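Readers of this paper often ask what the protein records in our data store actually look like. Below, we set out a record of this kind in full and without editing:
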Amino acid sequence: MFTTALALGLTHTLLGPDHYLPFIVIGRARRWSLARTSLLTFVCGLGHVGSSVVLGLVGAAAGAALGDLQGWEETRGGLAAWSLLLFGVGYTLWGLWRAFRPGSHGHTHLHADGTVHRHGHQHEAPAGHPTIHAHPHPATGPDETAAATPACGVDAGEVVSWKQLTPWLLFLIFVLGPCEPLIPLFFADAARGEWGDALGLAVGYGLATLFTMHLLVLLCWLGLRRLPLGPLERFSPALAGVIILVAGVGMVFFGW
């Protein structure tokens, strides 16, 4: 059964682009480091699997039928799909606002290690304040922009912070998302009191899901970081939002 759980987790994750696309495109658009992107992927993946396991335990303890539990999961799945779609809409609109907001633009260049780095600045300075093009590079590397203090003229919106809303919204969406293949197997063992088998299923499925998510995010992160968009770099958040929106549409209307 452990091998079955591994196979189910691998297949379910590979066939569900919503499991990895948000981290890939947002990480590229916001120029997050691999460590930061991987941490968010891990936390969201753990919440994704853990929420279904907790629901299965609650259902087994309450004596609920499998049909009832699957109905709860279907409701959660619908909420997660619509949440991802709306998140994509909001992120697209925010990206467009960011690209077209007055008085700001940036220069994009490629570092020797292949990292794309964009410096935002203002051309119109306030009275008594000279216009400058400051291009600070933090000691921790260009990807770790969260550690940098923006100099005068640098767009503070480029600084990545875990206090931003995006990571928390993604986490909530993944917690809502059900693990459909896991529920029937896990619930059957839990309802019979075979907790060892149930735990093995949950661990196997979770390991396969997290491994596949991280592998796909890693491969795409390594590839996309070497892909400069040139003049389109300013639209990278909006493009990320469109891709997430398409994934949400696929989930809501086509059952991805």
